[in-house]
Amino acid sequence: MPLIRRLLESRFWALMLKEIRQILKNRQLIFLLTFPPTVQLLIFGLALSPDVDHLSLGVADYANSAKSREFISALVENEVFKVSSYQTNQVALGRQVRVGNLTAGLVIPPTFDRDLNEGRSAEVQVFVDGVDANTAGIASGYLNQIANQYTRRLNPQLTSPPVETQTRFLYNPGLTSSWFFVPGVIGLVLTLTGSLVSSVTMIREKDVGTLEQLLMTPAAGWEILLAKVAPLFILLMGDVLLASAMGRFVFQLPFRGNFLLFFVLSGLYVFVSIGIGILLATLSRTRQQVVLTSFFFNVPIIQLSGAIAPIESMPPFFKFLSWFDPLRHYVAISRSLILKGAAVDALIPNIAVLFGFAAILMLISISRFRSQLN
């Protein structure tokens, strides 16, 4: 008991009580410590899932017979795949997989029925988008497993499967996981670094009291803000070059697309991340608040972007919500340029969304920053 009495009478206990009282008086800090973790836990618990289902499947059925349709039904029976389109030929099907509209493409040859009736193996061809190595590997395994189950259903006494799949992985033949993760991690780093650095830089003006001194300058609000954004933009573009060099020389990323286009579009996303940081700074009063608020916004942005976990494994609501995530569009641009070598016309929807986010965030930030100066 003397030890407890000594603790209660110590300066440490008095300081701890003071901190507790300050926290209890700060309602905004209590909100940031309770509400964001709850929301993030719900998002992570629902969005993070090792299961992959409802993968988009395209079919080019040259046989067009009862057995070929039965085989297609077997593929979609357990809802791992869903037939999104039927193509008339193999070329059109491959094009849909290349542009990212389909996860996998199935080509059933015209000799499908004849090979089965004569006891030979009926070979079907499968195209799988290998950009997401995890999803591609799972999709390939599912296809082989379903084909084997279909085989046993046709003739349980056959030792060799009458249906064999020949799978071809596009863009990532070796299913190298780093080729999927590194383009997403580049966007992740730009998001965290851009938002945190810009928000902390802005909030420091409030902490040291120099924000009031800016009122005495003859410059307009947008000039002051732009003078703060420009150095950050240059530094973050240096991060883009560093991350690109590491991806090329450390992880052997192919960089099949136009690197200058990738660099320019990365600059567009840097504006988005800086805009997020400045907006967070205008919503917070202290550096502690801005850091906690940034975690509340950035972690869901990262998790819903598909940079780490496949979007296909998310529930429908979170798939829809991810369309309003700027990082999702940048990750899609990065993977398309680095792995697929996509042309600019295939990226126009994602570029338009990023441009819209950059414009809206910067306009809101300028407006709020000007109101604070006033």
Structure description:
It is a single chain. With 374 residues, the chain is of the alpha/beta class. It has two domains: 116 residues, abc type-2 transporter like domain (abc type-2 transporter like fold, 3-Layer(aba) Sandwich), CATH 3.40.1710; 197 residues, no CATH class. The protein is built from 15 helices and five strands. It has a five-stranded mixed β-sheet with strand order 2-1-3-4-5, with helices on both faces. β1, α4 and β2 form a beta-alpha-beta unit. It is elongated and about 90 Å long. The protein starts with a helix and ends with a helix.
Please supply descriptive tags for the structure shown above.
abc type-2 transporter like fold, 2 domains, 15 helices, 374 residues, 5-stranded mixed beta sheet, elongated, 5 strands, alpha/beta, 66% helix
Helix and strand topology:
Elements: H1 2-8, H2 11-25, H3 27-47, E1 55-61, H4 66-76, E2 81-86, H5 90-98, E3 104-108, H6 112-117, E4 122-129, H7 133-154, E5 163-170, H8 177-208, H9 211-214, H10 221-249, H11 259-283, H12 287-303, H13 316-322, H14 326-340, H15 348-373
Parallel strand pairs: 1-2, 1-3, 4-5
Antiparallel strand pairs: 3-4
Helix pairs in contact: 3-12, 8-10, 8-11, 8-12, 8-14, 10-11, 11-12, 11-14, 11-15, 14-15
